[in-house]
Automatic annotation (TrEMBL):
Its EC number is 2.7.2.11, 1.2.1.41. Keywords: Amino-acid biosynthesis, ATP-binding, Kinase, Multifunctional enzyme, NADP, Nucleotide-binding, Oxidoreductase, Proline biosynthesis, Transferase. This is Delta-1-pyrroline-5-carboxylate synthase. One of its GO terms (molecular function) is glutamate 5-kinase activity. PANTHER family: DELTA-1-PYRROLINE-5-CARBOXYLATE SYNTHASE, GLUTAMATE SEMIALDEHYDE DEHYDROGENASE. The keyword Cytoplasm does not apply. GO terms for biological process: amino acid biosynthetic process. One of its GO terms (cellular component) is cytoplasm. InterPro entries: AceGlu_kinase-like_sf, Ald_DH/histidinol_DH, Ald_DH_C, Ald_DH_N, Aldehyde_DH_dom, Asp/Glu/Uridylate_kinase, G-glutamylP_reductase_CS, Glu/AcGlu_kinase. Residues 15-260 form the Aspartate/glutamate/uridylate kinase domain. Gene3D superfamilies: Acetylglutamate kinase-like (3.40.1160.10), Aldehyde Dehydrogenase, Chain A, domain 1 (3.40.605.10), Aldehyde Dehydrogenase, Chain A, domain 2 (3.40.309.10). Residues 295-526 form the Aldehyde dehydrogenase domain.
Amino acid sequence: MAAIDPTRGFLKDVKRIVIKVGTAVVTREDGRLALGRLGALCEQIQILNSEGFEVILVSSGAVGAGRQRLRYRKLVHSSFADLQKPQVELDGKACAAVGQNGLMALYDTLFSQLDVTSAQLLVTDNDFRNPEFRKQLTETVDSLLSYKVIPVFNENDAVSTRRAPYEDSSGIFWDNDSLAALLALELKADLLVLLSDVDGLYSGPPSDPQSKLIHTYVKEKLENTITFGDKSRLGRGGMTAKVKAAVYASQAGIPVVITSGFAGDNIVKVLQGQRIGTLFHEDAHTWVSNGELNARDMAGAARESSRRLQAMPVKGRSKILLDIADALEANEKISSLAKAIRVLANMEEPIGQVLKRTELSDGLILDKTSSPLGVLLVIFESRPEALVQIASLAIRTGNGLLLKGGKEARRSNAILHKIITSAIPESVGEGLIGLVTSRDEIPELLKLDDVIDLVIPRGSNKLVSQIKSSTKIPVLGHADGICHVFVDKSADMEMAKNIVLDAKTDYPAACNAMETLLVHKDLMENGGVNELLIELQTKGVSINGGPRASSMLNLPAAPSFHHEYSSMTCTIEIVDDVHAAIDHIHKHGSAHTDCIVTQDREIADIFLRQVDSAAVFHNASTRFSDGFRFGLGAEVGISTSRIHARGPVGVEGLLTTRWIARGSGQVVDNDKGVVYTHRDITHQA
């Protein structure tokens, strides 16, 4: 199901609809009428009719259908000699007369099968010049609709005075798209739906892989930027005609949706408010200023701004961060974050650092350098301080950024975003950091693998899993935070109690909080387990047991070893030794953060070497797994991925590498003229 578009809430008040179906939808490639598509159209109209909507149909297709019939008649009555002569184009008006009869007969048959009555109304351009005609037209249509009859309009091409072959665009209307727009105004419709052979209006020809569907048309932004494809294969217009008609109607106050007539339920979906096709609305330009639209434009602006940011002098980028810190303090917003931003601003410049320098041959030097990733999409939890941390890291690393925060902090996020972007100089552009305000924009953003380079979700297991399964863009993050503390038999029990308590109770909802406590079996005999249980329960922690622990300690059974409580609850299990603890962590953990408490250095080293998690600690709380505590300045999240960054992701995790070669005229020439030295000169002055 397509996402519900919040900008289409007005559709709930729609009563009268004009639907225009084009020749490319009504007819097949061979010119015959497309019975399946017409049947699906009539079924949708029947549904709307039964639900109380007033539906007016404008149908093309008569000329195309008539042309196919007359070609067959001409072929049947032609001699062999006639067929050898150059074939003259069939008279369009004759085609219209023949085709209209068959088209209307088919509509009548299809509607009759659905217990719906239809009526044919043929009009010409000249008719609308007569005020009496227009008045009578409205009265007739109102009367038909009161009887739940479906008026079916078409231009009366057979007797129209418009010049053949329909290239005359003068007059009150000039094709069935403009006729539909005119009727929508004359008959005071609430919505106009233009059915096409494509999903809507694209940024370029739909056949071009780079073209993207435009969900909302903003005339001021798109009028001179869209490249239209070919006109309709059979009709007069194509997308250019539809857009002209849609702009005309929408500016007069009639919302318009252009969508595909090939799908059997698109009209119904449009009226449900789903993000189907392209919407034209007189207020669309105001939605853009509120940040509700055009995910691609937002991502493109972030990329262009990031390139300008990277081109700035080092001191210029640092100054932006210092200005943001000053602005936050001036607005009395989280002074501790302002201090963290100043730490970032005073860090060594991360962009363009030479990580390795190699002499490939005499006079040919190759540098491996640090470089920004590009454009980041970060979807984060409700805490508003996350926005400041993430934005600061993006600026420090020269990346463009798109942010989507939790709805609970929407107002705070908007204020913080405004404070931060106001400190970004015009030479870079506020588009460097875009704030996505609608959750429905996320599916569109996740499709933009050509302009967004990395997605970082910070939220629930469900959110992270959904994003990973919904995009081709690389995703950096963790789906679970199943962190373990293993208390070995040689542990200092006072130290163990302090670490276990801190890991569980310091911030139980954090992804680095302990969820499972593993205890060496010998601690059952010397009372160590009871000490740990009493300490936890005294602090209000509820304890569930694994199979061994629940049996031996009479504890409630844990729902699963792979369960993230994110609350004052944990699981305890008894294990035989460090190897059993490691096996348990590998089987049930999430490769986030795991800790051993022991005085035996040899056992500690086994744990530290063999546990395959992003962070592994000895005698320290799992809560230290954090970008700020690691001295990274801030973090965008914690990654359990094994590609690129792992663990708390700070500045380094938002960088990639590129190769810079400096030569003096060298050429490969099949390697005949090159003497390779491949000498590491990284540390040479």
